[in-house]
Write a structure and sequence with these properties.
Elements lengths: L1 E4 L5 E6 L16 H4 L5 E2 L7 E3 L9 E3 L5 H21 L5
Parallel strand pairs: 4-5
Antiparallel strand pairs: 1-2, 2-3
């Protein structure tokens, strides 16, 4: 997975899934623009990770809606994004 954040770590610019071995038609939907596009311009809040909601989500609250039938895959992507953001902030010397 590759992620892009703005220079101030205030917004997530985008997410790209580079490789996956999920079930075709279900978990493999994590590579679709319908899912990865949910991360675009997502607000990053200090000490408030991105959350994955099963039913509904509010973009301004750092939430995304999980893919129906692939909630575990969706949550795994969100966890990876949160980890990558924390690592990036550590590398540049900022607190998360």
């Amino acid at each position: 997975m590759a992620i892009t954040v703005d220079p101030d770590f205030k917004k997530l610019v985008g997410v790209r899934i580079l490789d996956q071995t999920e079930t075709p038609g279900l978990g493999a939907k994590i590579t679709d623009a319908d899912f990865t596009g949910k991360f675009e311009a997502l607000v990053l809040k200090e000490n408030n990770p991105i959350m994955c909601k099963k039913d509904s989500a509010e973009k301004n609250n750092s939430e995304i809606k999980a893919i129906t039938g692939a909630t575990i895959s969706s949550k795994a992507c969100v966890a990876i994004v949160n980890d990558k953001i924390a690592i990036l902030k550590y590398i540049v010397g900022e607190r998360w």
